Structures are given as C-alpha cells and as structure tokens.
Amino acid sequence: MDVLRQVFSVLLVFSLLGAVLWLLRRGGRISFRGFGKGFAGTRTPGHTRSMVAVERMALTSDHTLHMVRFNGRDLLVATHPQGCTLVTEQVAERAMGAEA
Questions:
Q1: Number of folded domains in the chain?
Q2: Which of 2, 82, 94, 98 has its CA 20 to 30 A from that of 52?
Q3: What is the DSSP letter of 58?
C-alpha cells in the first residue's frame, strides 16, 4: 500500500510539471500580477514592440553578431566570451507603412 502511494505521488508531481511546461510553451510567461487572469503574452491593439531582433550571424562558436532594432535605431552588437560590444548604431530606415 505504501509503494502504491509513492507511485501515485511521483505521477502527480510529473503531471503537474508537464502541465506547467505545456502552459509556458503555449502562452509564454505567466502573469503573477492578478493571478488567474491569464498570460502576459497578450498585447493591446496598436501596441508595437520597442525592440526586435532583426538578424543573427554566428562567426565562430563563441563570437556572434546581432542586428537589433531598438526604438527606431539599428544596433549591431558583437557577443564574445568576455561579454558584448556595441559595434555600430544608426537610425533605422523604414518604408512608409512597413512594420518591424
């Protein structure tokens, strides 16, 4: 009887972990403000992102270039084992009506 209780306890823990993993993959982050109100991944209409990862280029296994658009500026950032470095920054050129 004791073994059966342990098996059901382990199954319960694994099923709870699986449910949490499924929820996180399905909806993004869980909103802890107002618990039970749903996920924080929803956006209000008309809200645009202020930061977008435009492109990524791996140079070596430890060195990567990232093009990031942040508040209307294009940033070229290099990552390396010692940290990251801003290589260049310029104003993003957007076509009329185009959205990032």
A1: 2
A2: 82
A3: E
How many whole angstroms separate alpha carbon 6 and alpha carbon 11? 9
Structural domain range at position 70: 51-91
3 and 35 fall within a common domain: yes
Residue 82 lies in a domain: yes
Spatial CB neighbours of 30, under 8 Å, sequence gap ≥ 6: 23, 24, 39, 40
Residue ranges with strand state E in the chain: 51-58, 64-70, 73-80, 83-91
Distance separating alpha carbons of residues 63 and 80, to the nearest angstrom: 5
pTM: 0.46
CA distance 40 to 6: 36
